[in-house]
Amino acid sequence: MNFLETKLKGVYIANTKFLSDNRGAFARLFCKQELAPLLGRREIVQVNFSLTESYGAIRGIHFQYPPHSEMKLVRCVKGRVWDVVVDLRAGSPTFLEWHAEELSPDNAKMIVIPEGCAHGFQTLDAGSELLYLHTNYYTPDAEGGLAYDDPLLNISWPLPITDVSVRDRGHSQLTNHFPGIKV
Length: 183
Prior knowledge:
The chain is mainly beta. The protein is built from three helices and 14 strands.
């Protein structure tokens, strides 16, 4: 794996090398040793999977409040998604900025999302599947979310939005999370 830093400090794209021959392909999707420079002393404690059936659907934008914040490593294993990370780290030079990356099995990218950032995605293909590796356990009472259509974020979703869960439609605007912020 090699790592490319994005404009958001601590958010990386891990490029994976696929080995192909007449039988198909092989890739190492996780290697603690190769990821050690990014993981530091963190351990992967939970692995989650999501399947989103509809084209243009949005999931997110999710995060966990401290002390339950988590680093996430996200990889698309089927289909294609437009993956978005939002920097929620007060004092960060990129506070409230976002970065998006297309993830697919074909491009073999994995996005590394540090603690203090929120995550969401839009499906570019129906039936897209994601694999998430987490450094902290899911804690329902620490769950947070941002409105996918918050004007302060002004995320440019690439497709018309076809589906958003009731839960994700109910996430509040940034002004409710960070009083004093002006739109």
